[in-house]
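Researcher: Batch entry, complex prediction.
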Amino acid sequence: MEPKPMDDIDGTLQNPGLSAPPITVKRTVTSTGARITTQIKEDGSEDSEEVKPVKSLVGDEVEDKVVVSENVCSDCLAASVEGVKSSRTRFEEFIKANKKIVSEEECLKIESKEEPQVNRVKEEPDVGFDDKKKPEDSASNRPLVPEKSVEAKVPSVPETSVKNMPYQEWLQFRGYAKSSGEGTNSHEKKVKPEGLETARLANESKANVRVREEPRLFAENKVNVKEESVRSSFWSKPQKVKKEKVEEQRVSAGLVEDGDFPEDPDWFLVGRTLVTALSTTKGRKLVDNEIVHFTFPSPNSRYNMQWIVRFSTKRSGEIGRLPMEWAKCVVPLVCSNKVKVLGRCVAAPANLSLMQEIMLYVSFYIHHSIFSDWDKSSWRLDGCRSIDSTVYPLLTLFNLLKNKPFQKADFTPAELDSRKRLLNLEGDSEEAASMLPIVKRRKGCQQFPEQNKDEQTITESSLNKLMGAAEVYNLEEMEPPNTLLCDLRPYQKQALYWMSKLEQGIDVEKAAETLHPCWSAYRICDGRASSIYVNVFSGEATTKFPTATQMARGGILADAMGLGKTVMTIALILARRGRGCPDNEELDTETVDNAQITKKRKIDSHINISSKAKGGTLIVCPMALLGQWKDELETHSEPESISIFVHYGGDRTNNPKVIAEHDVVLTTYGVLTAAYKSDAEDSIFHKVSWYRVVLDEAHTIKCWKTLGAQAACALSSCCRWCLTGTPLQNNLEDLYSLLCFLHVEPWCNWAWWNKLIQKPYENGDPRAMKLIKAILRPLMLRRTKETKDKEGRPILVLPPTDIQIIECEQSEAEHDFYDALFRKSKVQFDQFVAQGKVLHNFANILELLLRLRQCCNHPFLVMSRADSQKYTDLNKLAKRFLETNTDSGTNQTVPTRAYIEEVVEGIRRGENMECPICMEFADDPVLTPCAHRMCRECLLSSWRTPTSGLCPICRQLLKKTELITCPTENQFRVDVENNWKESSKVSKLLDCLEQICESGSGEKSIVFSQWTSFLDLLEIPLKRRGVGFLRFDGKLVQKQRERVLKEFSETKDKMVLLMSLKAGGVGLNLTAASHVFLMDPWWNPAVEEQAIMRIHRIGQKRTVRVRRFIVRDTVEERMQQVQARKQRMIAGALTEEEVRMARIEELKMLFR
Amino acid sequence: MANSNLPRRIIKETQRLLSEPAPGISASPSEDNMRYFNVMILGPAQSPYEGGVFKLELFLPEEYPMAAPKVRFLTKIYHPNIDKLGRICLDILKDKWSPALQIRTVLLSIQALLSAPNPDDPLSENIAKHWKTNEAEAVETAKEWTRLYASGA
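Model: Structure tokens for the complex:
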């Protein structure tokens, strides 16, 4: 059966239609009437207090009449108690008394509705009056119907038990009584306006079916059920009625279960409603008012069975099923054991056939424990459900019951879904749209690994577009406390103001009395129950008042790198000091006289929170920044003003009270995650109720499924902050994780995020972007160095940067070398082009390019290095091998002679083998004593110590000194140390460095290259010229890094820092230097930009001079063009196919 | 930033796994995370696992190949070196890892482990005991489990 649309039920309940136009309404009246009265009757019989609320469902217009009905109803009730006879007499009296009250109009309606009576009579027997009378009734009724002799039926009326007679039916009876009293003339009058209808009924001569039919007809106004077939099944019935009646009476006598449901102190009534169920059995199995029992599928039912709710009667077994719509919300609720369902039949065909509609009157109860158990803060009555589901049973039940929240959530999923809610955004869909291709491209370019990584990174400019960074912020400024020892710039004071405001949130007192905007408040029928609050986004329910104080406090400080997020945060820490979650404390002391609920919550929160130590600020940062945070906290705050505690390293305390004592606790993501992993919510961090948690480089938790992200989310804190220059790194999901941490409802709920943002965004729906902007607007502060203040001046005035390109001219020898290499590479490239396999050989091509680019830096980089000339003769090498091996005589596994000969032969033939570790052609291959070849770098980095380790192939212990640089037959084989020659680029660099040195300004320089092997080469001339230098690359462990950076900023001798372009990555502060040398162009300009940023940031007092070295007429020059092109591509203007083509074009460009 | 790029080695290994799969082994990367592989290993012939199709998951950590991949059986299996969570006791996945090993070699080793259970280095004490005290019966159980959990998946 198709479930009745909600509107219908709604209509029936709310609009009994007494005031609507006669003909159509008549049907409605009957159907609704029947329902309503049933309701009242039942309520009355079970729980008289309930009469009023239910009654109020009936529209106001009805009210007057209901007043009458109420009396009647109570009379009925009384009657039912007193017994059939007395009820009969009272009823008659009542009818007399009320004759005049019943309006003519009503009579009209009622009269035309009279047909049900026959049916009614047929069904009433179970009520238990004399069998003898019954046949008479029906006998007298039967012939009457075709004749439309209404009066004739009247005598039968009092004989039906009032007990079972719902109000509206009773009303009808009353109508009969009246019409009978007034006699035939009134009847004739009535027939006229009824013309058509009566005629039809007469023709069909089965008017007695109408009552059954009405509800269905009503439903069919909208839902097109197979009316005819259903009807015909009814039509065929009455002929047998007489017989059946008699039989049924016998069969059912004494067996029909139709008593009232006992009131159960443990179960509170949620509500009652009519449900149209479907029969699954045939026969005379059900009588009105019979109690039905529901059977729920077991929790482990198979997929297609899990929503089947059957119902049965005690005497006849299974009758039918609940409609899916109901089953889906009822099953999980019942499975939770907190909800029970009772029902009885109110209208069913006497003789059921399959798939017929049965009207059930169903009551829902909720267990009192949910109102009294305080150990759980909230519950969801739906067991295990899919994380992507946005359908919540309890909410569905309330909806189906038409239980409207008395206080509605500020914004609901439906509104957001339909985008009805104005998001208050400027029309910037264009910009948003330009962001979208990035996602598409990401999916399409997995075969291009090399560039993939760059493009995945959302560039600064697109980020700015998305986050609207260019805006002018008109924030007030807030003076930092005296304990802050450094001066804040105006925009930093703005940030302090903004952060303080967000931390204060809404006024605590007010917030405590304000319903959280994501929650709706419901009342259930049972007066004993307190209100139920349901989160419309997560489906969580609670009986405690969810206050607005539970809303997110804090946000994302997403200022671009170099604007001083750390200092702003320190200012905030100093300005707003606190312990634990003050909301709860304040609540405890406050006198909130509204509602016990709040008090209850107080008790609860007290229990929960007081057991936790109250902590200050927890700062979680990457390991690399731990030292920097500590230093900055110490230098920027007045001594003794705050206590700082670093929770990191071997001998860590495990006592939450210890760390809670300090104002600021510093730790790393690793430590936090490890603690959460081993102790979950009982970890040292989670046992503390923090005042504030700050995640530095918060994009570290961008994957919300990771333990790290979960550990951060699970922290209990009043205020939460994310510091990141890149809130979005690769994917919109990154942002979701941050919102989770911030507890921003409803967006920290994956289902809604996915439904309203993630999916639409991936599908290119620009509204998703708008929504994100709307969400972020109040939560995120993002300025860049270009951001202007109110007067249009840049917020941050840093010393200028002076970027120049230094063009180098290759020497003749260099040029020849380069040329040879280029021609060789081009032949190979052209081959790929000719075969149309450019993209398939992308890695190989990049390899060719790599060689060319390295050659621009120094030809040595593409030559084989020879540590000594000793083994250039391969025969000698072979000999040496065999010698050492026989000499050593240790337990080392000795490679066989045959193997060594094979290896040597391979080297002789100039075979370049693949390094087993990086699986690329070995770059600077070494030969181990066990005759295995691999990249020097790969091998060394696989070792735990720098001097020795195991052979990755045979696990033999090797020493660094034992490694032999692979001799090759390459003509460009050199010993770099002994044959050192400067390349043109190196010469230029050295000139520059010398000039700086001579100027005596004491300025320091940083030299960036992407190849550590080039940095190795650079060390040679620096040493020779006696230039003091330091080196910083990925091989340094944390301690060494800190030491190197400290030394560089303090030293007066070592004025140069050789740094690998990608080392360090986050947050390094290199303002000690003011000269930047970028030795080689990188594919993605953003990487170079980042490198410069490390120097050009707050604290930089000098002009930053950036020198980029480009060798003229080489691949480097063309890479410049590619970079420019890439800028455009990242801006998102190209389609996927265009990007593919562009890629090939790009490569062709390089090999021009 | 370094997190987002996939080392060329992983790409190469993936391509090779797909183009020349090892017999009885299939490994394919997940679409949304190229470091996560769905693996299926056929129970080796003449082992109690013959006829079974075993699902595993394999994850390449950030440090790979300097750190071992993380591998776990998803299909229930009765084996002294595999616990009920599917964790595998195999030296090359722990201290004996070498960067010269690959996804392929790891999976082949696991396949070999199925052929040659090693109850002397157990992960699952009970199963190992069973294996040692009554190998025939243990093998029967392993066959039964294979039939129950690893057939026709």
